[in-house]
Amino acid sequence: MTVAAATTMLFAAQNMTAQETTQDVAMNETEVQAPVEGFEQIEVSELPVTVTDAIEADKAGAEVTEAWVDNEKKTFKLILVAEGQEAETAYINAAGEWVEPKE
Length: 103
Hints:
By secondary structure, this protein is an alpha+beta fold. The protein has a domain of 60 residues: Nuclear Transport Factor 2, Chain: A (Roll). The protein is 27% helix and 27% strand. It has 2 helices and 5 strands. It has a 5-stranded antiparallel sheet, covered by helices on one side. The termini are far apart. This is PepSY domain-containing protein.
């Protein structure tokens, strides 16, 4: 056996050993919401008291199912659901005043 042949066999054996080692990686499937332009999704529990008080006063019986915040404009986008009614999208500022969305 020549030195070149022995070197080739040694190199090939090392590569085969390296290729035999595999690692199983568990992948968790996560749901990603598409961002709403200018708004970042937040937990409903993160809404300020002024906003939750306005919802209780003005939208009695409605539940916030989703919430987003535009930190630059200090505005919140809410999905409100009241029993027996369709979901409603509403916008409110940090002071608890209902506002119209601005493009």
